[in-house]
Recover the amino acids of this structure.
């Protein structure tokens, strides 16, 4: 993931986002990587998801 963040920054991206089901243990993983919850929604199958956004800072890989 850190390589992905570095590549995105190098290519001019300021933020990245993802959607993850609320009950997925990966939510904590994404939070540790710097993602923050910015909203909630239902996915195509009716599962409750978090929309998570991470600001890509130039001085840090995480």
């Amino acid at each position: 993931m850190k390589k992905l963040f570095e590549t995105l920054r190098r290519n001019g991206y300021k933020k990245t986002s993802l959607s993850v089901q609320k009950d997925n243990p990966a939510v904590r993983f994404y939070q540790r990587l710097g993602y923050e919850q910015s909203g909630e929604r239902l996915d195509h199958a009716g599962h409750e998801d978090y929309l998570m956004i991470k600001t890509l800072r130039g001085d840090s890989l995480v």
In short: The longest helix spans residues 2-10. The two ends are 9 Å apart (CA to CA). Residues 15 and 31 are 14 Å apart (CA to CA). The chain has a mean pLDDT of 91.
